[in-house]
Amino acid sequence: MIGATAGVTRAGRERWKRLSPRWRASVIVALTAAVAGGICFAVLAPSPKPRAREYLAFKACLLTDSRGIAGKEAAPVWEGMQRASLKTHAKIQYLAVPAPATMANARPYLASLVQRHCGIILAAGQLATDTVAANAESFAKARFVVLGATGTAANVVAVNASGTPVPAAVERIVSDAVT
Length: 179
Prior knowledge:
Distance between the termini: 73 Å
CATH class of the largest domain: Alpha Beta
Helix content: 40-55%
Radius of gyration: 32 Å
Number of helices: 6
Strand content: 5-15%
Structural class: alpha/beta
Number of strands: 5
Order of helices and strands: HHEHEHEHEEH
Largest sheet: 5 strands, parallel
Strand order of the largest sheet: 2-1-3-4-5
Low-confidence stretches: none
């Protein structure tokens, strides 16, 4: 096998030597141009647009009951948050409070959203809105939005979406919070 390869290599060198100097120069110039062209194409070709969406540093968070975003109260709120995220590139996330459905159980989850530095925390459902109403003063630097309830603390905004579909109202609220 090695002998056969050496023979092919030797024959190729002999053919190369039989070529006129002009042909050899032409082959070298053509190969050099092809390599230079490939390098230029690789360097100067436009890079493709990134496939991943670039998000802002702003986060909008949703506190829900154990059903999460599939719950009756949370689903339209989550839809509005998704619309706002598409429009503004804000990050969105939710946190579901597992059973038992008590404010004492929900409070650590609310505190977790505050510690995640959510720019705005929305509460959907009775458990979440009651937990925000009872604990908002403890988290004075956080901004809360409760739907269908009344806010008591200075950092709680109560939204009654009467006449406006909930997703549209939430989209407006989150979009306004981002800007």
